[in-house]
Specification:
alpha/beta; Rossmann fold; three-stranded antiparallel β-sheet; about 35% helix
Length: about 210
């Protein structure tokens, strides 16, 4: 469900709040921190369209040659053509952008088969509420060891993985440090709006 609260829009699923248009700082940071960690990135994947802040940040990077967005919920994609058009209208019109309505896990698996050397220079994951607090049970697999391996398989050597989370997860951070180099953790204070700080994890594939 998409609902309006004052001048803002909220996305709610089965009564559970997922995201809104109030504050996109951490979603923008997800992409910006990843791009800053990669010299001369060409191809970028955004896993999860959300309300579009990550996509808008990606489009602002002139050096990117291709921006793929994978979103499982078709209604959310449709809302970006109507109610959320003021946020992402220009970004979605960018010729570098391709939006796929699909399960991110299926997309990552297909990339691993079709391009075993990795397709992307940067992969940014913003699915559900991040590791340790998923509304949809199946999404937890993305943040387990097997899901992380799928994301890494989609990256070229030296590529950068960035992951958004609604709160810190020591277990997930440890998982990243086992598999990535130069792991960095950045936070955005949103306590007045949602409680704990949002967290962005960034690391490099060896």
């Amino acid at each position: 469900m998409l609902r309006r609260v004052g001048e803002h829009l909220e996305v709610v699923s089965n009564g559970v709040f997922l995201m809104d248009t109030r504050d996109g700082r951490s979603e923008r940071l997800l992409v910006r921190a990843a791009l800053d960690a990669h010299p001369g990135p060409g191809r970028l994947l955004v896993g999860g369209l959300g309300v579009g802040f990550s996509l808008v940040e990606a489009v602002a990077e002139a050096g990117l040659t291709a921006i793929d967005v994978v979103e499982i919920e078709p209604d959310l994609v449709t809302w970006h053509q109507t109610h959320l058009r003021h946020v992402t209208g220009a970004a979605l019109a960018d010729p570098r952008v391709r939006v796929r309505v699909a399960d991110l896990r299926d997309h990552l698996a297909a990339v691993a088969v079709d391009e075993p050397g990795g397709r992307y220079d940067v992969v940014c994951l913003d699915v559900d509420n991040g590791p340790g607090w998923t509304v949809f049970e199946g999404n937890a697999e993305l943040y387990a060891a097997a899901g992380l391996e799928q994301a890494l398989a989609a990256l070229r050597p030296g590529g950068v993985l960035a992951v958004w989370s609604a709160h810190a997860s020591r277990a997930f951070e440890a998982l990243l440090r086992e598999r990535l180099s130069d792991v960095r953790v950045e936070t955005v204070d949103v306590r007045l709006a949602r409680g704990e700080p949002d967290v962005v994890y960034v690391g490099r594939k060896p």
